[in-house]
Design a protein that fits this description.
The chain contains 14 helices and 22 strands. It is an alpha/beta fold. It folds into two domains: 300 residues, Rossmann fold; 106 residues, ANL, C-terminal domain (GMP Synthetase, Chain A, domain 3, 2-Layer Sandwich). It is globular, with a radius of gyration of 22 Å. Bound molecules: zinc ion.
């Protein structure tokens, strides 16, 4: 932690804790028995003792109780996309989201209805238009008439949009794709290269609760075709923590939950050590930037499930399914049914979507069981042998309307 950042962190902490408008942090810390001495300026080691806050902490307070500035300073109000199925968090902000990542000379962008992308591009000098994938024909017509040369979307949204495009739309005109909202797999990048050969693909990361866009790929990372990002030093201080105990991960490589402190001044609601629910790890530097490089791995709620003796991870399943791309589509759902009634063991069911030539689903279930690791020394098959859960079954994923939202790939059913 640089001195510079340390000063910013200290400032945010003092402003929030001593706020005349909101007692949020004083309340939350008091409940946790965390005592803040008068005039406290946390050192680096002390910083890590400050309790983390979660979405649950936030939603217990109405937005009027959480506003850290006078409501007179408010410029607008927006709601979160609410994908986590928790109550929608109503945010107040008096600062514009910023996109200051690579622009590839794009001038007109289409993004889809997510609150986070509103207001972003105007400040970056890119005119924007909002599409709605519930109305694909109108959206595609709008894209053509607005002559977009950039798209801001999640990879799932981009797939839906691309499928709806008419032949008259020349995809070679797209110069920039700003990806966010969910992890883009290697397969996703291949899809982008096939359909949008001239686009620079920039990953960005932000959350509703932290009020903005905090991380994106630099030009060099984007050109390498990764979805790695740097956190913008002036925007947020990132930490990775391990498990429920708030142990801070300092090393490269280890996966943890991303915890953010937002450093913007005059924030309507400063978040301090906020547990985002998103998983990330630091990776070895691939570019010349001085900031750490992060890989975002998905959401604890969408891409992970604990099972006896281990953990299911969507990117591990992606790895195992990769050789079968000619036979199955890239989307999958892995369902975990927890024991109920007479069924005493958890049951695992993998849903995949076959391509035209089809695949033998029971063989696929066998391969996945043998190959998919759920812990350092354990595969699904070895867990079944040890009587921890029932054998994995594989079924066809029902064909439905393609989802335009964030995709859940691992689902647990109680
Ligand atoms: Zn870089």
């Amino acid at each position: 932690m640089e001195n510079n950042t340390n000063d910013s962190l200290g400032r945010v902490f003092r402003e929030a804790y001593g706020s005349e408008y909101s007692a949020f942090y004083r309340d939350v810390y008091a409940k946790r028995g965390f005592v803040v001495p008068e005039g406290w300026r946390p050192t680096k080691q002390q910083w890590f003792t400050i309790p983390t806050i979660s979405k649950d902490d936030l939603t217990q307070y109405g937005y009027d109780k959480r506003a850290f500035r006078s409501l007179d300073e408010l410029e607008w109000v927006y709601t979160s996309s609410g994908t986590s199925k928790r109550p929608v968090v109503l945010n107040l902000r008096n600062r514009i989201f910023e996109y200051d990542g690579p622009k590839a000379q794009a001038r007109r962008i289409m993004f889809f209805r997510t609150s986070l992308l509103f207001f972003v591009y105007a400040k970056a000098g890119i005119a924007s238009v909002s599409g709605d994938l519930n109305y694909p024909e109108a959206t595609v017509q709008l894209a053509e008439e607005f002559q977009i040369d950039a798209i801001g979307a999640s990879i799932s949204q981009l797939r839906v949009f691309t499928a709806a495009l008419r032949e008259t739309f020349d995809k070679r005109n797209i110069k920039l794709i700003v990806l966010g909202g969910e992890r883009c797999t290697e397969d996703g990048f291949r899809f982008i290269r096939e359909h949008y050969p001239n686009a620079l693909t920039v990953a960005q990361y932000g959350t509703s609760e932290t009020h903005g866009m905090h991380a994106h790929s630099c030009e060099e990372l984007a050109r390498l075709g990764t979805d790695y990002v740097h956190f913008r030093e002036q925007s947020a201080f990132p930490e990775l923590i391990r498990g429920a105990h708030d142990d801070v991960i300092e090393d490269t490589g280890e996966e943890g939950e991303l915890v953010l402190t937002v450093l913007w001044e005059k924030n309507m609601f400063p978040v301090i050590r906020f547990r985002t629910g998103d998983l990330a790890r630091r990776v070895a530097p691939l570019c010349g930037c001085k900031e750490d490089t992060y890989e975002l791995l998905g959401r604890t709620e969408f891409d992970r499930a604990l099972i006896p003796g281990g953990q299911l991870k969507s990117e591990e399943l992606e790895r195992v399914l990769a050789p079968y791309r000619d036979s199955i589509h890239e989307d999958f759902e892995l369902h975990v049914f927890l024991p109920t009634g007479s069924v005493r063991l958890p049951r695992l069911e993998l849903l995949v979507r076959s391509r035209r030539q089809g695949i033998n689903l029971s063989q696929l279930a066998e391969v996945v069981s043998k190959e998919m690791r759920v812990g350092p020394e354990r595969t699904i098959a070895s867990g079944v042998e040890d009587g921890l859960y029932l054998p994995l079954a594989c079924q066809e994923l029902p064909v439905g309307k393609p989802s335009a939202g964030k995709r859940k790939r691992i689902l647990t059913h109680e």
